[in-house]
Design brief:
This is Serine hydrolase domain-containing protein. Keywords: Hydrolase. InterPro entries: Beta-lactam-related, Beta-lactam/transpept-like, Beta-lactamase/esterase. GO terms for molecular function: hydrolase activity. The chain has helices spanning 11-22, 67-81, 108-112, 127-130, 133-142, 159-172, 176-188, 198-203, 239-248, 253-258, 273-278, 289-300, 307-313, 388-400; strands at 2-6, 28-35, 38-49, 54-55, 62-63, 192-194, 208-209, 285-287, 318-321, 328-331, 352-356, 362-366, 371-377, 379-380. It is α+β, with helices and mostly antiparallel strands and 401 residues long. The chain is globular, with a radius of gyration of 20 Å. The strands form four sheets. Strands 1, 2, 3, 4, 11, 12 and 13 form a seven-stranded antiparallel beta sheet that branches. Helices cover 33% and strands 16% of the residues.
Length: 401
Amino acid sequence: MIEGHCDPAFEAVRTAFADGFARGEEFGAAVAVYVGDRCVVDLWGGVADRRSDRPWLRDTPCLAFSCTKAVTATAALLLAERGLYDLDAPVTSWWPEFGAAGKDGATAEHLLSHQVGLPALSRDVPVAEAHDPAAMAALLAAQEPEWKPGTSHGYHALTYGWLAGEIVRRCSGRTVGEFVRDEIAGPLGLDLHLGAPDDVIERAARLSAGRKTDKGGAARKGGPSATGEVPRPLSPEDPLAKMTAGFRDPNSLLNRTFGNPDINRLPGGNNNPEMLRAGWPALGMVTTARALAGFYRDLLAGRIVGRTTLRDAVVRRVAGPDRVMYIDSSFGLGFMRPSLVFLTPRAGWDSAFGHTGLGGSISLGDIEKGLALAYIPNRMGDEVSGGVRAYRLLEAAYACL
């Protein structure tokens, strides 16, 4: 079932990857690991489409959800490095309309680190309208923030792309997808798309929901875990309990952040070719694991932005309770840093950066160890962010170093 290449020194990664299929946790997936410029793991397996049993092949791309945000942020950082705007200057210096409703003190750093206070849209937005980055930017520019920019942080699940993307659009005259194609993915030969062409959509994996199964294939039905352990009740003040309550409340900031625009109103949801072509800059990237790991390989090597720019970008700007997700999160300039929403082994706590994606995908670079890893599944997990499947692969990769 598992195909591809794995250096013998990284056999633990192959084992962890295969175990996910054996547990019934995967339909199809791919994982890739670089150490420096050397590809030590490039594995794939399972089915790309459960309806037809189309197999996952070497060049099967898949929607990587919020792993997109790190690529969008990198495009913005590249333009700052070129001197086209100042990260510390007011956003109004290059986007005058953004100063409305008390946001005149916001900076690009606030935009890139989830501090600007615009995690949720103020009105229901149809999916078709969200395909227009200029319209979405204008809507957000006029909107009152949930908190004064720079005073707190909360995950901007969808709006991040239109906010950080406006840096790219105004400073380069191109959408994020066009800029990434012309300046990053194209020159580096990466099969990575924000706005996938039809030939990429045709070979892309189809996302599927699915319940976890035990080793014998029987679906778990709640209650005690497979180990017989009964989960302890959570206090109402526990951040995980607050997150659960937030998802149950249709008017919570959490639901308003994640649920508008409501992609589920579109036939097929994120599998709809309309969404894959749109390339929303917060969650619309279609890529292979090999290409996404290659993106971090090239970031670490200084081929996209300079090493000084990257080191500054991964400095923690915020850390602690997230205003949207309740549990602790931590961000640099566009990159997640290790926290409860970006779990890494202890060996990566000080030097890892990257981004997780809805349903279980993850992308990571380690600025000290030269490690680059990407994992993309098509079986949607229950995770808002990276989950246990991704963590097992990270744990194995770090152990192999």
